[in-house]
Amino acid sequence: MAIHPTAIVDPKAQIAPDVEIGAYSIVGPDVTIDSGSWIGPHVVVEGHTAIGKNNRVFQFCSLGAAPQDKKYAGEPTRLEIGDNNTIREFCTFNVGTAQDVGVTRMGDDNWVMAYVHMAHDCQVGNHTIFANNATLAGHVHVGDWVILGGFTSVHQFTVIGEHAMTAFSSAVAQDVPPFVMAAGNRAKPAGINAEGLKRRGFSPEAIRAIKSAYKTIYRQGLAYDDARSQIEAEALKVPELAPFTRFFALSERGIIR
């Protein structure tokens, strides 16, 4: 274990032997940090926080602080961060609240740029990219492979489906279906993330099916429930449409229009 002599690490913290902790960082008693992780200088890790393997946390981050929620009364809620994540400078991730599942969670292999805020009870999947100053309000769900453009703001309780993408300075106040690109204030649909899907190995046939689903939602004039039923039926034949089924089960705020 390589802990800088100026770092303050509570003896009750569970730190793997090969973890590195930089100068002037502070690690609280209820923190767990798994092997291969690197905590830079001037980082505060507190609360009931679990950090997985091979993470890189850059200087001036605050992980596991109390939620910015006036209802919070000190309950032992949690922050869980998976493996192989990069968290750049000045990011703030808060623990969950008793009003939700009590856990703020980020999965694996996420690339989080500077000044990103992840509020209480957010659930973030795997392989996402959050550009600088992206902000998630409380209770937001973000699926795998999502890309949030710089200065994107996401309203509380919003769901962003897998493989979706937002443009710079998008203000997302309603749910974003999988694969959809969103742009503007307030964010509106702007086609599908076709280039991203090609890079991830989606076949031309799968991309055509996803484009067809987009047209079902946005171009055919169908009521939302009718579009949902049509896409769910098609997903039984086209596995690549399964993210829509997962999204429909979570979505409650209504989708961007």
TrEMBL record:
One of its GO terms (biological process) is lipid A biosynthetic process. The keyword Lipid biosynthesis applies. It is an enzyme of class 2 (transferase). NCBIfam families: lipid_A_lpxA, PRK05289.1. Keywords: Acyltransferase, Cytoplasm, Lipid A biosynthesis, Lipid biosynthesis, Lipid metabolism, Repeat, Transferase. Its main location: cytoplasm. Involved in the biosynthesis of lipid A, a phosphorylated glycolipid that anchors the lipopolysaccharide to the outer membrane of the cell. Its EC number is 2.3.1.129. It is found in: Cytoplasm. GO terms for cellular component: cytoplasm; membrane. Homotrimer. Belongs to the transferase hexapeptide repeat family. LpxA subfamily. One of its GO terms (molecular function) is acyl-[acyl-carrier-protein]-UDP-N-acetylglucosamine O-acyltransferase activity. This is Acyl-[acyl-carrier-protein]--UDP-N-acetylglucosamine O-acyltransferase. Residues 175-256 form the UDP N-acetylglucosamine O-acyltransferase C-terminal domain. It catalyses: a (3R)-hydroxyacyl-[ACP] + UDP-N-acetyl-alpha-D-glucosamine = a UDP-3-O-[(3R)-3-hydroxyacyl]-N-acetyl-alpha-D-glucosamine + holo-[ACP]. The keyword Repeat applies. Gene3D superfamilies: Hexapeptide repeat proteins (2.160.10.10), Udp N-acetylglucosamine O-acyltransferase, C-terminal domain (1.20.1180.10). Pathway: Glycolipid biosynthesis; lipid IV(A) biosynthesis; lipid IV(A) from (3R)-3-hydroxytetradecanoyl-[acyl-carrier-protein] and UDP-N-acetyl-alpha-D-glucosamine: step 1/6. It comes from Crenobacter cavernae. Pfam families: Acetyltransf_11, Hexapep. Coiled coil: none annotated.
